[in-house]
Amino acid sequence: MAVLYLPTDESGFFMRRYFFNQQVECSIISRSAKTVSGICFFLLLFTGLLPNTVFAGDKQPAGIFCDICGQQISGRYIQTSDGHTYHQTCYDKAEKCPICLMPIISGQKTATLSDGRVCHLSCLDNADFCSLCGEPICRGQVYLKSEKYGETWHESCFNAAPKCGITGRPIAPGVATVKIGKEIFIKAAYDKSRKCLVSGLPVVNHGRYIVNARTGTFVLEKFKDKVHKCYSCGDSLPDGYDVGHGLFLCRYCYENGIKDSLAAQPYLNVIKTFFKEQGVTFPENVKIVILPPGQLIDDNLPALKGHCRNLLRTNTITGGGTLTHTIELLWGLNPDVFLRVATHEFSHAVIAEARFAASGKIYDVPYEEGRCEYTAYTFARSRGLPAYIIDGFSKNQVENYRKEFLHVLAHPPENIKTLLTAIDF
């Protein structure tokens, strides 16, 4: 008698996989092991043998009965690995469980699947289920299994389902998703991903991207020309305020009181360059606040007032618009240093009294009569603020006033917190 166990699938790939991974036990008289393996492979590919079956020869054992019809077996018969025996004809005609592909015998507990097929209840209880269609994975079906997600899918369901653009995981019905253009993402994965500021797309699987180290934000390289930038610091905007006229303030600059115009930005860069080139040690907690010229503030006030109303208020005096707004900034920011930087003639009209009150803190500043700068200075002093006034600082006069400016940077008060600069043009 020859006994041959063949656990297999109907798919060629999985049949071979199961065949070579399972132990094959054979006891065939007068046949070599090589011949047996050839017979096994032939039976696998061409006979359509069912899993876990045992074929016996024509020699009839005594007292063997068919578990389907109950009659004694005579002639060729089939015995399965679970110990059941059947007539060949009874086995062929019997209703099979779609999960294990074994005959359903009278008296066995059964269950009905959604498509009306009947299966063994024990098979249904122990089966893996497709995470997409909800149906059990039946023997002989090709399937995929993910240990990471703990999910199993029919190959056909996996291929037909939309995939998450981040994880590649098929999206089951009812799972929350985010759709951007033609791409779809599982919401849980999307919420945890690093996203492009411009497009909102996850940076994973979407090509090269640019990282802003200070803000910790990302922009896909293909969108770098479309990103909004803070008009104060120039960084990409992770969030912030639209102040109109195509200008934006990032949250960092807004919350730290840095309000400057596009025209004033080069001067802030000059200040930073001074720090670096001259090796001046300046306290790390110093804030540099650039106030645009009075007229520029007046022109942009409708756009700015929604965000800066507590700091900037228009009340322009002839030739003294910037001064008015400087005082408003002092009220709001309460700086420790007041640095006045200006070029127009009006600014020269107040230097005598300012220099006298500053007790020699201002150097090489021309004398002209006037009181506006003195008003700003006395305001700062009345609040206990050390005040520094430097005149004539423009991009054409930077070298002329390096000495005075560096003196302020090199000898800051111990309690300095804010460097306030008002720049006129």
Overview of the structural elements:
The chain contains 13 helices and 17 strands. It has 425 residues and is of the alpha+beta class. It has three domains: 94 residues, no CATH class; 54 residues, no CATH class; 165 residues, no CATH class. A hairpin with a 4-residue loop joins β10 and β11. It is rod-shaped, with a radius of gyration of 42 Å. The protein starts with 11 loop residues before the first helix and ends with a strand.
Brief descriptors of the model:
425 residues, alpha+beta, 3 domains, 16% strand, rod-shaped
Q: Poorly predicted ranges (pLDDT <50, ≥5 residues)?
A: 1-54, 256-267, 286-377, 385-405, 412-425
**Number of continuous helical runs:** 13
Major sheet: order of its strands? 14-17-15-16
- What is the strand content? 15-25%
What is the domain tally? 3
Task: Give a short overview.
The chain has 425 residues and is an alpha+beta fold. 29% of the residues lie in helices and 16% in strands.
What are the SSEs and their pairings?
Elements: H1 12-21, H2 33-46, E1 53-55, E2 77-80, E3 85-87, H3 88-93, E4 110-112, E5 118-120, H4 121-126, E6 143-146, E7 151-154, H5 155-160, E8 177-180, E9 183-186, H6 187-192, E10 209-212, E11 217-220, E12 240-244, E13 247-250, H7 251-255, H8 265-278, E14 287-291, H9 294-308, H10 321-333, E15 337-341, H11 351-357, H12 372-382, E16 387-389, H13 402-410, E17 418-423
Parallel strand pairs: 14-17, 15-16, 15-17
Antiparallel strand pairs: 1-2, 2-3, 4-5, 6-7, 8-9, 10-11, 12-13
Helix pairs in contact: 9-10, 10-12, 11-12
